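User: Uronate isomerase. Structure?
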Amino acid sequence: MNHLFSEELLLTNRTGSYFYHTYAKHLPIIDYHCHLVAREIYENEEFEDLGEMWLAHDHYKWRAMRTFGIDEFYITGGAGYYEKYLKFAEILPRLIGNPVYIWCALELKRYFDIEEPLGPDNAEEIYKKTKELIKGRHMTPRWCMERSKVEIVSTTEDPVDTLDYHIRMKRDPAIKTRILTAFRPDQAFYCEWSSFSNYMGKLSQAAEQEITSFSSMMSALEQRLSFFAEFGTRVSDNGMADITWCDYTMEEVEAAFDKALQQKELSTKEINQYQSAFVIEMAKLYKKYGFVMQLHIGTYLDANQKKVKEIGQSTGFDCVDDTTSVRSVGAILNRLTEMDELPKTILYPLHASQVESFAILAAGFCDGKVKGKVQLGAPWWFNDQSYGIERQFYAAGNLYPVSLSVGMLTDSRSFLSYPRHELYRRVLCSYLGELVERGEYFSDEIYIKEMIESICYKNVREYFGW
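Assistant: Predicted structure:
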């Protein structure tokens, strides 16, 4: 049994191995969707240790630790990073089949040149070695990006954000990676949230205009979208955990907004009408300002409400849901198409059973004018592992050209997450190699080279206009 990291990881056939090492391995990275903190990139402080690098923000690891019964004190609680690291090291050898195991192996190899697997038996040794390397190499957020050949990173910010740190970084010639951001108006989308009314106050202040109606809210959002566009943003990020299309009149939408602003309880119909109108109006603005519209579909937010109240949102208690129907999203795309207001759109269904349906839907709204205008997004969140990536290639590849994909993203809060692009590229090349070896593809190799380079790098530049 091999006990060292293999450079043939996930390359299950010779042809795929050749494709990866020849065409994919050395390509730069464009990480067009993540949740890194802009302040941390700007301040660029040296990491304390591997515990901080791995466990400060990574809810994938937190979820895994909880499943093993590890006390929250060692996950998000008051324990030091060294103590948290030791607890995590105890479970890592037992995460067979889990992406966290492979991610950690890739991260140890790519950033620390460590090939042996981490476990409780060598945790102290690896801790000391990585701590010395962190100090010796002066490992910082930007160092991680440069080490991974990351050309562009797009974070995700709320419309009320001042983009202060992004603007500072844009003016700093010492920063080699271009730091952009996406426009994420979720706080204005969820009119049923108790925080909605308070958020309208924040949006009003940021836009420097009074918000008393749905129309004035949209005006404020356009003002903020214009500000983001002036900075250089060309992409939006819209989290639609659950949306049901519902026809509406603007009078009905204004009435629903007024109730939400007064913190009154809304009916299901009112919520659906408001959210349907909101997506339509935002999409029109995205088209106007040349933004790509990303729709993240099917999240079951805050499933464990008790823990969310104790620890906070986005700490590992969200799940997957399939209540958002293809018909509802189709109705949104159809309405925008009828109005000639459909922007470039990427659909990200989280529920694995909906991937094929949304691939078919996307193809149905491509207009013959823009290449890949509406397309299926990369496998994300619970699907961004080798099995989920491979499953999507085989399932959706039959229904929408894989060659048009804008490729992988990290969707991560970790500065060590860039090997996820490598994992994607390995699975892609293995998939292509298998098709070739089975005789299902026999065009000239130049087309394989072109497709790999496009999927992994060139398509995203062209699609987002970067």
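The two ends are 45 Å apart (CA to CA). The chain has two domains: 14-45+139-464, 46-138.
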